[in-house]
Amino acid sequence: MTAPTQPGEPAGRIDYAKTLDLPTKRLILVGVLLGLFLSALDQTIVSTAMPKIAQDLDGFSLYSWVTTAYLLTNTALVPIYGKLSDLYGRKPILMIGIVIFLIGSALCGLAGEPFFGNLFGGGMMQLVVFRGLQGVGAAALGAVAFAIIADLFEPIDRPRYQGLFGAVFGLSSVIGPLLGGFLTDQVNWRWVFYVNLPIGLVALAFIYSKMPRLASGLQAKVDWLGAFLILVFTVPLLLALTWGADGTYAASGGWSSPTLLALFGLSIAALIAFLFVESRHPSPILPLSLFKNPTFAWGAVARFMIGAGFLGAILFLSLYLVQVQGVSATAAGTATIPLTMGLIIGAIGSGQLASRVGRYKFLMLIGLMTSALGFFVLSTLNADSSYGSVIFRMVLLGLGLGPALPLYTTAVQLAVKPWEIGVATSAGQFFQQMGSTIGTAIFGAVLTAGLTANLSTQFAAQAQANTGNVAARLTTIGEQVKNSTGTATSERNAAPQSPAQIKASFDALRTNVTKAIETGDAAAIRAIQSSAALPAEAKTQLTNVPAGGVPEQARPAALAGALGGVNDGEKIAIASARAQKVAFADTISTIYRYAIGVAIIAFLATLMMPNLVIPTRPKGEKAAPVHIEV
């Protein structure tokens, strides 16, 4: 064991970066990367399977809660696991996290099976609870994995390996939707969860057999009260933001509803109590002294902003691809592959470059400037932007956001004491995840308000461009949207039809109208009556068609009247689709204009961080090997 070399350093601390050989480090790294891949993959693979899961378990009312439960437990527990890993070692905490995650995965795959009966009220609620358990395990994977890099590698080597971790997140966002779709369509949605088991067991084997305890040497009591208070602060806050953004309590006042205000009040009270307790505990869950460190403090602000911008970019870009570009909802996840590839290149490239030049701040600033530029070009998207130009914008944004994943972690780990790395690293992740949740809620509110206003404006514009019944109908739809009383617009999460698709459906409708009038075809009449696109007055003309069709002498007038109604319906459908596309494009462009401000704040916060130099590898003999228990 090494003697203390810094004031306050625990006497039992081992410098694993110097005492472990490189092959052992790489084997440990494989296990850690596999564990992190599990956590990252689970966030993308499940979303593709959710429509089928909700259908099989008859639980569309709990659809969003499958994701919310996972995020709640994951975010709330990250700083707690970080502190526990400092106290008890990375290995036991990481293994506990993987085991809990695998148990949660197995239970998720079994949700709704007959032997569970009516546990928790049914299959979908079982899945929600088990996803929360998965999040409990996943929090340990994310909290500990990034700290392990600092334990295994010297500062000059850390950025390149942190870049690999960033690439894992990017890779999972590509593989997840593809694998989720394949397993759901070709095997069974339950395998979306079961696939975690073999990967997790391999990761456990690597970690158990090759990883030392990676203990910091700290001997302290766990701050259980602080851990409880951070949960009471985080969970109500995330619940209130989630429910406020999705309109759960819209009927009782929206954001000002008593339930949401009570949750916000509880969260604020818990935060005040948490700060009081942490300032007095000898070994707090989140040492407040970290905020006196300018690298940690300004880095927390920057990561909070980056979290908001990153998740917002993914969510609203997918929405743009569905609503404006016409990509299917299932394919929207894979359509963001260019963004992911830019992110992977940015993460790995910046990590490699930082290790070579020994500095990182200029790379972070360049990345944030590139992000701001990426958000700017995304803010110029419109209803007629080509898919090729969207790809260019996605790659540019990914290149800018990529360096944020490895370099902020590197910066914090260099700025704190080695035995504080676990809590400092996990706290940085906590702020980034909180930024993602809060940013999504705020941007979601901007989307809801902006979309209503833009839809009303666009329907009014389309009404002015038309005349007669078409203009009157479009005006009515616009008023309904403005007053939020109508459902005339298409489902907001479904891709609108293209003009070619609309024309094809109305050509089929014209054929049915002709058949109905000329021959009284019953099937044609049923198809006409079930058409949602045909105006009601046009349907009325075809209600009393005689069994053999309209008499020959009256047929031309009947055809002209009915086909005129079909033509009006086609014009209304095309104008409505156009209004929807333009409204969505304009609203999402506005969100990206706000995101430019988010990137600028992150840039300014990063500018305030000290420009620390990454210590180079000391010359001379390596530290003598020591006995390390595995």
Biggest sheet details: none
Average pLDDT for all residues: 79
N-C termini distance: 15 Å
| Strand and helix order | HHHHHHHHHHHHHHHHHHHHHH
User: Are there runs of 5+ residues with pLDDT below 50, and where?
Assistant: 485-493, 623-630
- Helix content estimate: over 70%
In one word, what is the shape? elongated
Compute the number of helices: 22
Strand content: under 5%
Work out the radius of gyration: 29 Å
Produce the secondary structure layout.
Blueprint: H1 16-19, H2 22-56, H3 65-88, H4 90-110, H5 123-152, H6 158-187, H7 191-194, H8 196-210, H9 224-246, H10 258-278, H11 294-323, H12 332-335, H13 337-357, H14 361-378, H15 387-401, H16 404-415, H17 421-464, H18 468-482, H19 499-519, H20 522-529, H21 536-541, H22 555-607
Helix pairs in contact: 2-5, 2-6, 2-8, 3-4, 3-5, 3-9, 3-17, 4-5, 4-8, 5-17, 6-13, 6-16, 9-10, 9-17, 11-16, 11-17, 11-22, 13-15, 13-16, 14-15, 14-16, 14-22, 16-17, 17-18, 17-22, 18-22, 19-20, 19-22
Summarize the structure.
The chain has 630 residues and is mostly helical. The chain has 22 helices and no strands.
Describe this structure in words.
With about 625 residues, this protein is mainly α. The chain is built from 22 helices and no strands. The protein has helices at about 15-20, 20-55, 65-90, 90-110, 125-150, 160-185, 190-195, 195-210, 225-245, 260-280, 295-325, 330-335, 335-355, 360-380, 385-400, 405-415, 420-465, 470-480, 500-520, 520-530, 535-540, 555-605. Helix 4 (about 90-110) runs antiparallel to helix 5 (about 125-150) and helix 6 packs across helix 16 (about 405-415). The longest helix has about 55 residues, at about 555-605. The chain is elongated. It starts with 15 loop residues before the first helix and ends in a 23-residue tail after the last helix. Residues about 485-495 and about 625-630 have low confidence and may be disordered.
